[in-house]
Amino acid sequence: MDSRKCKDPRWRWFFLILAAAIVFVAALFLYFFGWLFGAGILYSLAVILLFCFALAGAIAIGLLLYALFRRWCELRGAPPKGQGTREKTGQTSTRVPSTIYKRPDPLIYSQYYFMARGFAVTWDNPDITITELPAPDGTMTPVPSHALLPNHTYRIHARILNGSLEAPAVGMPVLFWYLTFGIGIVPTPIGLTIVNLPVKGASGHPAKTFHDWRTPATAGHYCLQIGLFWGDDAEPDNNLGQENVNVGKLASPATFKFPLRNDSPATRRFCL
């Protein structure tokens, strides 16, 4: 037999049906032969074979009805077409792997991100501004970051962008904190806000948020930082922006405290 016929599913179905028909005819012959001549063994064998055929036929009819019902559902859900046309559209549902999806890219001007790639940076962050609290008429006076008053409340404004054209970041936390100039310092939290960041170019982009900050009572240099937190970020390295600020006026020569912190449980000796 030609090997191509063996690979053709129609020929396989043909031989399957032919074999089933031969077995069925043999079962009928055994049934009538045993019934006429009283051959109990042949009669019992024929009854068993006929029962198996009846069971297989019931299963086949059930599968056929299921296939017809499924095809009917596919045709009802298919887009409308001209009369007499029919198109094989394949599967009506597709399983998308969990690794293929669109992710947002919330970002802020991040000096550490640019320095890691060899770019020059400015510590006067264009995405972070400081103003006085709103006046009665709603205006907010900008304040230079190198001339902040101690123990005074200012408003920190943050501009947040999205590098993705396809995925927004809804309900993204934005954390404000500052670092004291020194060695082994720890961040001091200011506050947390939640923003809805649309896709790049959409209405409401870039998103803007703010938080009020009461400056420390001690004059000195501080590093104001803003961090964006999104668990499914396409580029998490550009989520930290910094603005260097000076609190209080420094005379010449400048005199200020230099904090030194030791996070180790053992005693350390520092040489400055």
Structural class: alpha+beta
Please outline the major beta sheet.
4 strands, antiparallel
In terms of quaternary structure, the protein is single chain
| H/I helix tally | 4
State the distance separating the first and last CA atoms: 93 Å
CATH superfamily of the largest domain: Immunoglobulins
**Helices and strands, in N-to-C order?**
HHHEHEEEEEEE
Beta fraction:
15-25%
Number of domains: 2
The share of residues in helices is: 25-40%
Indicate the overall shape.
Answer: elongated
- What are the segments in which pLDDT stays under 50 over at least 5 consecutive residues? none
The CATH class name of the largest domain reads Mainly Beta
Secondary-structure topology with pairs:
Elements: H1 3-7, H2 9-37, H3 40-77, E1 106-107, H4 111-115, E2 128-131, E3 153-162, E4 169-180, E5 188-197, E6 207-214, E7 220-228, E8 240-247
Antiparallel strand pairs: 1-3, 2-3, 3-6, 4-5, 4-7, 7-8
Features:
2 domains; 272 residues; single chain; 4-stranded antiparallel sheet; alpha+beta; Immunoglobulin-like
Mind explaining what this structure looks like?
With 272 residues, the chain is of the alpha+beta class. The protein folds into two domains: 3-77, no CATH class; 106-247, Immunoglobulin-like. The chain is built from four helices and eight strands, in the order H-H-H-E-H-E-E-E-E-E-E-E. It has helices at residues 3-7, 9-37, 40-77, 111-115, and strands spanning 106-107, 128-131, 153-162, 169-180, 188-197, 207-214, 220-228, 240-247. Strand 4 and strand 5 form a beta hairpin. Helix 2 packs antiparallel against helix 3. It is elongated.
